[in-house]
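Q: Start with the shorter request: fold the first protein.
A: Done. Sequence, then structure:
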Amino acid sequence: MRPRIEGENPDAKLPGHPPECMCPRKEKPMTSPIRLLADGHPETGFGPSSAVAKSDFTTENTSETISSFFQSKDEKISVGVWECAPCREEFDAYPVDEMMTVISGSLTLTSPDGTAQTFSAGDTFFMPKGTPCTWEITETLRKFYMIAS
């Protein structure tokens, strides 16, 4: 474990996580593989997420949740499960490098030239940082993710 900084609250949330994140701060040494569970982290479950603007949701359902399993000390790598109701977002440049495996639901990615790819349960794909696309969740999406920023 890292040494505690003087005056630091040992129960504070992980740095880089939104204030509503439910991840405990206590770091555990990484000495074995981490099993990712589709139903979220068994100790912390799912908490609210705010990656999608409310105006980008395409139905009355604006639910978006996240369950974090790992974040590197330098905050450049994060791993977990994310779930989001149907929405449509335009990206001039996707903000991170991200590998995803769809657990349930459906997502269609459309490139600027109109080429569309649809991903559904069991599909794994990689989005390079900077990729321009339209991201459209057509059926509530749950995915495993690994983000490198």
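Q: Next, the second protein, separately.
A: Sequence, then structure:
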Amino acid sequence: MLAVAWYYNILAVLFGFVALVLMLIILAQRGRGVGLAGAFGGAGGHTAFGAKTGDVLTWATVVVTAVFLFAAVVLNYVFVTPTSTLGRTDSTTAITAEQPEQAPVATQPMQPTPAPAAQPVPTPTPQSPPPTSTAPPTPSPTPTPATSLGGGGAP
């Protein structure tokens, strides 16, 4: 990931804020028709923010547009890194006219390499289940009334 300077985000947010303000100022102006001023309840002859609003909005538009264009040019130099080598004369980017030609390397056709021998996969041996007795299960002793916990019978 590229390292971004701490001020890049601040400059980008400020530039977006200037663009938003410019859009709002332009939309608030009265055009030849009613414009956005009619949306605020003003009629064709009246403005939404007073009689002198047209002059103030015109000057504000000029100022904010100048700030927007200046910021766009400055931020172009801040955010874009130079990648072009046009006009550079340092030895790392200069193209030399005399480059020695390399002799072609004689290569032999590649021989296919044999696949490794397949190793047998060990198969698990089946284990026999534990022996089961064929004799019927012996019943468990039933408790006698003296040893039962109920305690309801005679001793």
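Q: Describe the second briefly.
A: Residues 7-31+46-79 form one domain. Helices lie at 7-28, 53-79.
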